[in-house]
User: Fold this.
Amino acid sequence: MGINPKDLLELVCIPACKQLNMLSMDALGLMMGTGAIESALGGALIQRTAQGNIVTGGGLGWLQMQPNAHDDCWNVVIRPTIGRPGNFSKLFPYQDAPASLMCTDLLYAAMMCRAQYSRFAEPLPAYTDSVAVYNYYKKYWNTGAGASTLEKWTAVYPPIIALLNKTDLNAYK
Assistant:
């Protein structure tokens, strides 16, 4: 059992995207979909084996970002912007934070997810196109080696679309 999706959307994802000046329905769909398939929206905060053992180097937080991806995102995307105003300035206070902070700080994990997805030139797919969102997630987050499948995605993503369809971003601006 994970976190209430509406709470996660309104109290974590929207504020994270707002702080980075990257708020869009498509970003929210991608982030919520990532969390839904990776951890059942926070049902798991650290990647474990079937026997319950922690996977070394495995995913962390409700979005299950791997520590090496966290560190690479800092080194390639965020750290080069320190000292300049811009989208990532809200992350600067976290610059020495360990990747494990994503297990306890939902907002930080969401901001890192959005920063990670922002590094790619390919535009975000429309949140209403479930297959396109899955393909983007699979290409840039889960990769070919990951366990995610389109079948699993289609089981968890339709409620995300329904939730977003009831969301008015103008209320958060």
